Amino acid sequence: MTDQQPPEHPPHDLVGVGIGPFNLSLAALAHPLTALSTAFYDQGTAFRWHPGLLIEDATLQVPFLADLVTLAAPASPWSFLSYLKERERLFPFYFAERFHIRRTEYDAYCRWVSENLPGLHFGHQIDAIRWNPERALFEIDFTQLDAAGTAEALGRTYSRNVALGIGTEPHIPEALKPLAEAHSVPVVHSAHYLENRERLIAAEHITVIGSGQSGAEIFLDLLRARPPGREKISWLARTEAFAPMEYSKLGLEHFTPDYTRYFHQLPETARDALGPQQWQLHKGIDTETIAAIHEELYRRTQHGGWPDAVLTPGVTVRTAGRVATTRVELHLEHVRQGTRTRLTTDAVVLATGYRERPIDALLAGLDPYMRRDASERPRIDDRYRLVLDPSVTGSVHVQNAERHTHGVGAPDLGLAAWRSATILNSITGTNPYPLPRRTAFTSFGLDRERALPPQNHHDMVPLAEHT
């Protein structure tokens, strides 16, 4: 492995850390801005988007317009429609009349962009980011990796601005971590479902934990693979019900820039209280999947009897352990009912979601400059910049690490292009991507100019008089 070398090129205007959909969107929208010098790095060997969940026929939960660029630049050569045109598939797509495309197709589209867009550097692990006050630049240290992930060389680049798009990581509940790490019994996170699918199907009894879209899709896929009358599958969830995702037209306006602005202006305590209440906006199940599950279960009753499938919401896994060496025992509690029991199973799929990857270790060199909120989380302004000491003249933008400041839309693909355009408008100091002033019919909050407090109690009008 070679030593670090001094920089051979002028500093970049923007360096992206991570090449998932969000930074890929940023790179695609930055591409036509020829005056902007950019580079994007990712430790993976190629673009990969949730490969363990590319279940056959599973679709995105957002329309195809939520691609990398369209909602900011509909004429971009990196749009999903441009991808179809390149592949000579526009007419088949037109006649298919699909508003929601398959996940496999979205993944293929993103890979097409990543393989043709210049300035992307895979096989580069970013190790540290520091501010160099003498040069007024960010220093970005990286390790170049070979195809097997072994370090080949160390390097450093410099940039005036940084965009963090390091994504999320699978969340495994503490009670199940020892079993997931042991590998002797199949206890796998949904992120690794497809690579373990055959092993799971071969298990005598399977348990799926988690009530979101991933849990529903995996339960349905496993159910379809089991013979009628011998399904031997359980589906457990902490939520009170296997609930549908909020998908009404006005409900979807929570994923607009208008709502993002409203949420960002709320006090920190109000934001923290509001977030958990909105779980059904992003943790529910789409109605088509719920209908497909019910139809599959119903089909299995047509010759009499009920399928050997147990669906139980309102349940938590208190502890878990192995029985002999091949089975798992789950200790369950139903909080509302006040009861506890045990479930012995041969395989477990943890559809328990994802958490934002911590950025503190990567940004340890910037810690003295970072401003934090009352919960020690990074403060992030309305242009997706970490709030840093004024002595730092560069900006660190974040993508999908700002739910605590920007709300439920932070991980949503539908806001990717808008957020990338906001970042590029901020970095360039110009307006290469004009953005709409209004995006929702809903007015979130009161208009401050119209919601002035009354001058005295005589100005107050009882609600009953507002007719």
> Averaged pLDDT, please?
92
The best one-word shape is: globular
Number of helices: 12
SSE class: alpha/beta
Rg: 25 Å
Strand content: 15-25%
**Share in helix:** 10-25%
Query: Unreliable runs, pLDDT <50, ≥5 residues?
Result: 451-467
* Strands ordered across the widest β-sheet: 3-2-1-7-18
Q: What is the strand tally?
A: 18
Distance between the termini: 77 Å
Major sheet attributes: 5 strands, parallel
Helix-strand topology string: EHEHHHEEEEEEHEHEHEHHHEEEEEEEHH
Architecture overview:
The chain is an alpha/beta fold and 467 residues long. The chain is 25% helix and 21% strand. The strands form five sheets. The protein has a five-stranded parallel beta sheet, with helices on one face. A five-stranded parallel beta sheet has the order 9-16-10-11-12. Strands 4-5-6 form a three-stranded antiparallel beta sheet, with no helix packed on it. Helix 1 (21-30) packs across helix 12 and helix 7 (213-225) packs parallel to helix 10 (287-299). It is globular. Residues 451-467 have low confidence and may be disordered.
Search tags:
467 residues, alpha/beta, five-stranded parallel beta sheet, 12 helices, 18 strands, globular, disordered C terminus
